[in-house]
Amino acid sequence: MIHDGRSRKLPFDRDEAVAHLRACDAKLAALIDRAGPFTLQLDRSASPFESLLESILYQQLHGKAAAAIHRRMREFFGGDPTPQQLIATPDEPLRAAGVSFNKIKAMRDLAAKTIGGTVPSHAAIDKMSDADIVERLTEVRGIGSWTVEMLLIFRMGRPDVLPVTDYGVRKGYALTFQRVPKTRPIEAADLPAPDVVFKRGQRWAPFRSVASWYMWRACHLYKNTPPAGRSAR
Q: Taking residues 49-65, what's their average pLDDT?
């Protein structure tokens, strides 16, 4: 995700969200005590087209490699391309920038569905429900529910999104709510099924995005915990 240095205000009250989570779940309250304040900062406000275009470019690539491809593509277009520009551009300059054939197909589908109205405008998407946004945007080739959920949380600041298939959310859940040994790496068998996360998450509504953020924080705390027998410095 891109940050441009400007902090955008969340469309909900941070203190109210954290107080609700503390009150409804004692184990989550203990994690909040360890992790500290809820400090999510929204990424730059981009149109759905621009956000999804970036998501497609970054899929299955290391961040630096994807950023280099994104930069080369922007240099070719003189900035972020419009849907019309993508439709009109042949494959060769996009391939020269490092974009794969599959991603070119996904980008063209995104452009076509933006022009056709399937992908809503910046103004229109703000008026849509989370479920409607997921349904509409996952019609684009290469865009799944997880990608849209990340857009809802980090771009739009929607308060009640719980990405139950996300590895970090499931790992954070295991560390917070299950008896997982902290002295060894987390294994696939340790991770809860998505429906287990969903079931407990019902008590976190209407602030499941904030709870998700704390699941990711649980992973960060685990990563920075010294191995057994060593003291923290």
A: 91
Asked, for residue 112, whether it belongs to a domain, the answer is: yes
Looking at residue 43, its pLDDT comes to 82
Nearest to 142 by CA among 158, 169, 164, 119: 119
Question: CA torsion angle for 221, 222, 225, 226 (degrees, to 10)?
Answer: -160
Task: Please name the residue ranges forming H helices in 59-157.
Answer: 63-77, 83-88, 91-96, 101-116, 122-125, 130-137, 145-150
Same domain, 138 and 193: no
The radius of gyration of the chain from alpha carbons, rounded to an integer in Å, stands at 20
Confirm whether pTM is higher than 0.90: no
**Residue 185 maps to a domain:** yes
**Max Cα-Cα span within the chain:** 61
Establish whether 91 is a catalytic residue. no
Length of the chain equals 233
The CATH number assigned to the domain holding 100 equals 1.10.340.30
Containing structural domain, residue 98: 48-155
Catalytic residue among 43, 109, 160, 166: 166
